[in-house]
Amino acid sequence: MLQKKFKLFLYTALVAPVAFCLALGTASKVEAQKEIRLGFLTPLTGGGAQLGRDSVNGLKMYLDEIGYDMAGLKVKLIVEDTELKPAVAVTKAEKLIRHDKVHMIVGGVMGSTGYALGALANREKKLYIASIPASDDLTQRKLSKWVLRTGWAGSQPGHPFGKWAYEQGHRKVVMIGADYAFGHENMAGFHRGFEDAGGKIIQKIWVPVMTTDFGPYLPLVKKEADAIYALMIAAMPGPFLKQFKASGLKMAILGGGTTADETVLPNMGDEALGVITPLQYSAALDTPKNKAFVKKFRKLHKKVPSYFSESNYTTAKWIHEALKRVKGDISDINRFSQEFQKIEIDAVRGPVKMDKYLNPVHNIYIRKVERINGELWNTVVATYPNVSQFWTFDPKEFLKNPVYSRNFPPCNYCK
Amino acid sequence: MFSGRPRAVFTVLLVLVVLAAVTPFLPEYVCILLIQALIFGILAMGLDLLLGYTGLPSLGQAAYFGVGAYAVAILTTRYEFGFFPTVVLAILLSAAVAAIFGLIAIRAKGVYFLMLTLALAMVVWGLAWRWTSLTDGDNGITGIPRPELGFDLGIYINLFYFILFVFILCLGALYVLVNSPFGRSLVGIREREERMRMLGYNVWLHKYLAFIFSGIFAGIAGVLWAYYKNFVTPDDLFIDVSVEALLMVALGGPATLVGATIGAGVIVFLRNYVSIYYSGWPYILGAMYIFTILYLPEGLMGITRRLRRRAKAEKLDE
């Protein structure tokens, strides 16, 4: 009797999950016709949570403005948390493609995530729009028709910034930065720009990603340098600048855009004053478009927008424009991509268009942190218009070099 | 595993056959998750050999998993090794690392063993993170090709069958292992180490071999992971992986082998499937752990055992 009951239990235990899965399978086949599904990947938890919040808020702000309607298609936005880890991003991208059947993947933050998603996009033959990841090679040597970039290439702002720094009288610069793809590339851009102009990089210090204790590294900094170039990301800039000021080092602080962007600026104090960084956006940009953008964003989210917000806002607009051009017909993703590449956008950051290698050409602003009415802002002190990822180099010659890395360009003046 | 009873073996085989028959009709995403569950199942079963059968709680399985995965990544992308040499070398490397770490870790017991294995695994993680010329550091290694074995492993259902095949081989091997005299002595060591020593068994050698075997299965799981994911990063050998493996075994039921796989399945599906509908899935997972520890110290597999025991008891009453 009980034996029978046990058997019954066993078979139910076997059959129930199978039936459950089958039911789920049929349920997910129901598909609405007239919608565009965007899979958005961004960190919502962990050290990159603020970057993720700014990103999603920027994207959603545009979608709200258009009432989630793009050229007659209803926008279905599915947001997934990457935890700032490339491996998680790939798993979530697989979910977005297989389970949600998204038309394209948008977002990511880390340069390493960019490379991972680029490889996935190629394998899955899915369009990936890199709105933040600045991994150089995605639009250089690993160029693929499946990867469109609306953000920036990591070394892009560094080339003009290196020239600018030399013109300001800096001759010897020490560099310190996060030891991963984006860090290598971003620092190499400045390295090349600065040395081409005549300056010397005398030291490069690499710190692990997400380091917040710089005690072991600051004593290494060579004191004869005129300036230090610091490339910090996510939660790193605050602790770095505080500890740098406390260490008694007096040299000027330059840096990558992420060292003083608007994700970290509101939480910083006097230690950030005077830090100069280049980027394609500043919340202090003095244009009517940006002023309106900042005003609205602040009203909605009680915070100044960062380039993460601007880039994703612009990306949504870009997708919208491309959909208008194909009249809401998303069945041919290649045609959509072709139209996407032709668009010149009058974006919040300024005019943006795509080069032949699918990376944006846009203004690079040299920004200095100043206190205005009690708040820290990235005041624009110089503008380099229409900067491409290849700066003034010939793309073909440029691409003959290996991708920027720890060892390229070689540090000729490091001892 | 099933105390060697034919009915239990039959049940497991039946489940595997049903799984193989049903999967082609499931959504592709579920198929991907099954692949993950099977891979983690192999990792967890390997750990079960240590934790469940030998009583050694290792918190360092990520090291051998990661070494297997990185070996595949480096050998295939840098040196373009073929499938078989890659797999053999990768598994040998995992075994070698386990053999070295085992020499250090086996000296300790209980919490000290846990801490030692954890520390050793963190060394490997640190290497993957900082030895950038070899591992490309935080970027990870992308573009690992799927093996070419005459059928297209780019299609998930094919990959699923391939991994199911490997899983069955691993399960079979572990089954033979734990039911062999060697496996029996491991249980003896778990229950009463001193007595085993008194009886003349080389306790150290038994533990050491179990440690290496456990590392080998973690390595196999790592190899499959790299081929499935086409991508490895230092995260793949971070402490999270080790902890998760431990939880899988605890959840499914130690010293049951299949329990570890069930634990792996539950965790993979909670994290990747339930999370779609309920963002608070970690609460469910947490509640499950607490429930398991309080009421099911033998894990999910303990449910059937309890039922069976009760059935037997009532039969005696009659």
* N-to-C CA distance of chain B: 29 Å
Please mark out the parts of chain A with pLDDT under 50 across 5 or more consecutive residues, or reply none.
27-32
Name of the CATH superfamily of the largest domain in chain A: Response regulator
The SSE string of chain A, one letter per element, is HEHEEHEHEEHEHEEHEEHHHEEEEH
- Determine the strand fraction of chain A and express it as a percent band: 15-25%
Mean pLDDT of chain A: 92
* CATH topology title of chain B: ABC transporter involved in vitamin B12 uptake, BtuC
Assembly context of the chains: heterodimer
As a percent range, the share of helical residues of chain B equals over 70%
State the CATH topology of the largest domain in chain A: Rossmann fold
Q: Output the radius of gyration of chain B.
A: 20 Å
Structural class of chain B: mainly alpha
Please explain how this structure is put together.
The complex is a heterodimer of chains A (415) and B (318). Chain A folds into two domains: 35-154 and 288-362, Rossmann fold, CATH 3.40.50.2300; 158-280 and 363-400, Rossmann fold, CATH 3.40.50. Chain A is 38% helix and 22% strand. Chain A contains eleven helices and 15 strands. In chain A, the strands form three sheets. In chain A, strands 2-3-1-4-5-6 form a six-stranded mixed β-sheet, sandwiched between helices. In chain A, strands 11, 12, 13, 14 and 15 form a five-stranded antiparallel β-sheet that branches. A four-stranded parallel β-sheet of chain A has the order 8-7-9-10, with helices on one face. In chain A, helix 6 (181-197) links the parallel strand 7 and strand 8. Residues 27-32 of chain A have low confidence and may be disordered. Chain B is mostly helical. Chain B has one domain (28-280): ABC transporter involved in vitamin B12 uptake, BtuC. Chain B has 14 helices and two strands, in the order ααααααβααααβαααα. A two-stranded antiparallel sheet of chain B has the order 1-2. In chain B, helix 3 (61-77) packs parallel to helix 5, helix 3 packs across helix 10 (203-229) and helix 12 (258-277) packs antiparallel against helix 13. The longest helix of chain B is centred in the N-terminal third of the chain and has 27 residues, at 28-54. Chain B is globular, with a radius of gyration of 20 Å. The A-B interface holds A 2-3, 5-6, 9-10, 14, 18, 21-22, 24-25, 28, 85-88, 90-91, 94-95, 98-99, 111-112, 115-116, 118-120, 123, 179-181, 208-209, 406 and B 11, 14-15, 18, 22, 25-30, 32, 129-130, 132, 137-140, 142-143, 154, 229-233, 235-236, 272, 276, 304, 307-308, 310-311, 314-315.
